Amino acid sequence: MIPDRIYIIGYMCSGKSSISRKVAARLGYEAFDTDDMFEEKYHICVQDFFDKYGEDYFRKFESDILKKTGEMHHVVVSTGGGTPCFFDNMQWMNENGVTVFVKVNPITSYHRITQAKRKRPLVIGKTADELREFVVNHYNSRLPIYEQSVITVKGEDVDIDEIIRKLTELE
Ligand code: S3P
Q1: Which residue has its alpha carbon closest to ligand 1 atom 12?
Q2: From ligand 1's centre to the CA of 119, what distance in Å?
Q3: 35 CB under 6 A from ligand 1?
Q4: For residue range 122-148, what is the model confidence (pLDDT) as tens digits?
Q5: Given phi > 0 = left and psi -120 to 50 = alpha, else beta, which region is 114?
Q6: Neighbours of 16 (CB within 10 A)
Q7: Measured between alpha carbons, how far is residue 93 from residues 34, 70, 87, 88 in Å?
Q8: pLDDT band for position 1 (50/70/90)?
Q9: C-alpha 111, offset from chain centre
Q10: How would residue 171 be classed by pLDDT, with cut points 50, 70 and 90?
C-alpha cells in the first residue's frame, strides 16, 4: 500500500519540488512545499524572513509547518534543504510518513545554485570559490541525516517510475 504521506528531502537545488509534483500527479496525491507553505502562512519570502528575524526563528516555524502536515492525507511534501537537519524533524518524518532522499552530487547543486532564480539566504554574498567550498562542506555535514531516509534516488537523472515502484514495494 502506498503511504499516506511522502516526504521528499535533499540539499538545495536537488529538484525536490519538481519531483514531488510529478510523484503526486502519478499517485493522485496533492503536492506541498514547506517553503511555499511558510511564505503563504507568514506572507513573507524565506529570504526576507531570514534577513529580518534570523535563521533560528525560521527553523522553529519551519518545524511547526512540517508537523502540521501530519494531519494531511495523500500528500507528497517537498521540504527545505535544512528541514530534516533541525529538531526531531527527520525522525518525525520517518514516523509519520515515508522519506525519499533525492541525492545529488554537491558540485551539481553548486552549479544549479549559481543559476537559480530564487536566492537562498544561506549562500548569498559568496564568491564562486567560497560558494563551492561551502556547498561541499555543508552538504557533507547534512548527508548523515539525509541518509536516514527510507528511500534514496539519484537526483541527476530522476526516474519517477523507480520512485513509484520503491513506494509500492515498501513493507
Ligand atoms: C534551506 C533551503 C531552502 C530554504 C531555506 C533554507 C537550507 O529550501 O528552506 O533557504 O537550509 O538548505 P530549498 O532546499 O528548496 O532551496
Answers
A1: 81
A2: 10
A3: yes
A4: 999 999 999 999 999 999 999 999 999
A5: alpha
A6: 29
A7: 13, 9, 11, 9
A8: confident
A9: 18
A10: confident
Which of these, 113, 108, 100, 121, lies nearest to 7 by C-alpha position? 100
Q: Cell numbers for 105, please give them.
A: 552530487
- Which CATH number is 5-157's, of 3.30.70.120, 3.40.720.10, 3.40.50.300, 3.30.1240.10? 3.40.50.300
Whole-number pLDDT of residue 81: 98
| First-to-last C-alpha distance (Å) of the chain | 8
Nearest CA to ligand 1 atom 4: 80
How many angstroms is it from 171 CA to the middle of ligand 1? 31
121 near 50, Cβ under 8 Å?
Answer: yes
The grid coordinates listed for 28 are 493522485
Q: Cell numbers for 130, please give them.
A: 567560497
- The Cα–Cα gap between 166 and 162 comes to 6
